From TrEMBL:
Entries under InterPro entries matching the protein: CNTLN
Upper taxonomic lineage: Eukaryota, Metazoa, Chordata, Craniata, Vertebrata
Segments of skewed composition (Basic and acidic residues): 1-17
Gene Ontology terms: cellular component: centriole; centrosome
PANTHER family: CENTLEIN
A GO biological process held by the record: centriole-centriole cohesion
Residue span of region Disordered: 1-33
Superkingdom as given in the UniProt entry: Eukaryota
Protein name, entry field: CNTLN protein
């Protein structure tokens, strides 16, 4: 650009000189030289402009190359940062793997120790199993004996149950008779009330007769009350007698069964072990169980409650 400006200044000077030469009408030789120089200068201008265009194109291409290289540098820097991150991650992974290796080696040691202890336990358990098998066999033999005894007791229980069912039937019959008596009482009361309504309409003489009939009905009611009380007492007494008989039958059955099962030699042996006579041993065998005594107490309490309930019914209107 500087060369271009210099050439333009020179052209202006030449033009000015040519104008001054034309005015002064100088010789034709210098004008020719000036034209030649002018042509040379124009050729130089063209050449310089061509070079400028070439250089501008080269500058543009160089700028594009520079931008491409900068982008490639950025890409490479990004790749480098990623590679550094990957390297750091791989280092961390290697450290983790080393720590895990150490932990696994320690775990292997502990697992080997536990395996040895477990093998010892297995051996001890096998010995225990063999001992338990022998104990199970002995328990099975005991079970067989117990099942036989159970079947005997069940037969005795069924017999007692049948007797109880018969007595329950008797009780139901007695209750039905009680209901019949109550129905008769209600009928008597209804007839008495009807007679009262009829007699209320009649005169005072009829009232006296009604009072007499009422007195008679009251006497009948009192008689019925006494009858019911006596009946309940007798019922309770008969039930208690039946229960005592059942207990005695159970006791006698158990004693007979025990005597049958036990021979005289075994009784004498048991008496000698306990340091007791045979008669005392039989008395010990005849002793009641705590459960049976508790049952008898419960039954007596229920009988008392039943008597109180009947007394409340009688006392009611």
């Amino acid at each position: 650009q500087q060369e271009k400006e210099d050439l333009q200044e020179k052209l202006k000077l030449r033009e000015h000189l040519s104008q001054t030469a034309g005015r002064s009408e100088a010789t034709p030789l210098p004008s020719k030289n000036i034209d030649l120089e002018m042509k040379q200068m124009q050729c130089k201008l063209k050449n310089s402009s061509n070079e400028i265009t070439k250089q501008s194109t080269t500058i543009k291409s160089l700028k594009n190359e520079v931008q491409e290289k900068e982008e490639r540098i950025r890409q490479l820097q990004a790749k480098i940062s990623q590679l550094e991150r990957d390297l750091n991650m791989k280092r961390h992974l290697i450290e983790d793997l080393r720590t895990r290796l150490k932990a696994n080696q320690e775990n292997e040691k502990t697992s080997n120790e536990t395996l040895e202890s477990l093998e010892r336990k297995v051996k001890t358990l096998a010995e225990d199993c063999s001992n338990k098998k022998t104990s199970i066999y002995s328990l099975k033999q005991r079970l067989d004996v117990a099942t036989k005894e159970k079947s005997q007791y069940e037969q005795m229980y069924h017999k007692a149950k049948d007797e109880l069912e018969k007595k329950d039937l008797k009780l139901t019959n007695l209750e039905s008779k009680m209901i019949e008596t109550e129905c008769a009482m209600t009928e008597l009361e209804t007839t008495a009330s009807q007679q009262l309504h009829v007699l209320a309409k009649q005169s005072g003489q009829a009232l006296e007769t009604v009072q007499k009939t009422l007195l008679l009905t009251n006497d009948k009611v009192e008689e019925f009350m006494t009858f019911v009380k006596a009946l309940t007492r007798e019922l309770q007494h008969s039930v208690q007698e039946l229960r005592t008989k059942i207990k005695q039958a159970k006791k006698t059955g158990e004693v007979i069964a025990c005597k049958k099962s036990l021979s005289q030699e075994s009784v004498q042996l048991a008496a000698s072990i306990l340091n007791v006579s045979t008669a005392d041993l039989e008395e010990i065998l005849e002793v009641e169980d705590d459960e049976e005594t508790a049952r008898t107490k419960m039954e007596l309490e229920k009988d008392k409650e039943w008597l109180q309930y009947i007394q409340k019914l009688l006392e009611a209107q």
